[in-house]
Automatic annotation (TrEMBL):
Domain NAD-dependent epimerase/dehydratase stretches: 4-293
Family of the protein in this entry: Belongs to the NAD(P)-dependent epimerase/dehydratase family.
Protein name listed in UniProt: NAD-dependent epimerase/dehydratase family protein
Family annotation (Pfam families): Epimerase
InterPro entries cross-referenced by the UniProt entry: Epimerase_deHydtase, NAD(P)-bd_dom_sf
Xref: PANTHER family: DTDP-D-GLUCOSE 4,6-DEHYDRATASE-RELATED
Protein source organism: Gilvirhabdus luticola
Amino acid sequence: MRKIFVLGGDGFCGWPSALHLSNKGFDVTIIDNLSRRNIDNELGVMSLTPIATIQERIKAWEEISGKKIEFYNIDIAKEYTVFLDLILKKTPETIIHFAEQRAAPYSMKSSKHKRYTVDNNLNATNNVLCAIVDSGLDIHLVHLGTMGVYGYGTAGMKIPEGYLEVFMKTEDGKEVSSEILYPVNPGSIYHMTKTQDQLLFLYYNKNDKLKITDLHQGIVWGTHTAETKLDERLINRFDYDGDYGTVLNRFLMQAAIGYPLTVHGTGGQTRAFIHIQDSVKCIELAIKNPPKENEKVKIFNQATETHRVRDLANLISEMTGVEIQNVKNPRNEDAENELRVENKNFLELGLNPITLEKGLLKEVKEVAQKYTHRCNKEMIPCKSLWTSDTKTKVLI
Ligand code: NAD
């Protein structure tokens, strides 16, 4: 059986991916330090859906499927030798790396949160790369990056899958071309760490010939996958709060409880999206199509649609009758932007995407309305502010 490590396998993307891969016959080991559950405690929020403990999740999966998933509580950013020893003991073929602090608003709350996000995300990624080199094993690393590294301003061109060909003139007037990473423009400390991840990959690929696939994912929406639906103990998390709730899931929750859909600024920001079921399929496709020997870092845009935020709000408002409310944008970003994304790599590998238009209402009914009684309305607005008209608080 092909062995896979899922780092961050207790999280929103990691848990359904672990189940999907286990169902497909991979031997899955989850490594997670449960920091995301601790952040819920810190913020005083909880997933809208009643998520079971990781131990209960794994036990339920074994009962239902007869398949075993192992779990290790390891902090990838801090416990290097423990992590390396586990790699040497288990010899995984692939490592999927989801184990980072992933909320832009959380990363902007205070200097404490900025420093935590940088320490955690950069050390986690560097430790994974170092450990693969130290192990001497031929391991394919699949990392979850984000479309957000590009800052969304693309002057009308489609964002390519990672690389851009640039043409320059030498001093003697000869035209030469070169391929570079598509330029980044991070809009938060979280996104900044993801841009740094890209350079770490470029470096370790060049220097140590590591096989790496970096998936530039859009905003993930939805909750269920085929596997998480099988039993309530397998249910995925659904974040709707101002820090971790991504825009679409926040709108779905608001629609379910009749709370106005809060659009930041004019809602003219265009974002890229993907359903969680498609996200797990893309990960499987990436695992099955690793880079060849000496190939550069493979970069895929893991997004299936782009929409303006106000268009999404209008769509949900029309479906549900809930009104829209424009509020001040807490982010430091352009009020309006275009975003076009090249995504032919996954389509060519056979992805058949779930569209927002088809899946949205189902999500409102099956998840958001079902668990309305667990919603704390006070936690919905985003209270993290980007700019220093609010000075960041020094918390030590
Ligand atoms: P999540 O917070 O739900 O899951 C991340 C998991 O990693 C958590 O279970 C957490 O406990 C664990 N973790 C964090 N730091 C760790 C460490 N040092 N050691 C061990 N475990 C650690 O986040 P998610 O939504 O599942 O996102 C996963 C990845 O996908 C992130 O890297 C994120 O940047 C990327 N991504 C997510 C989205 C989205 O919409 N959710 C969009 C684009 C990219």
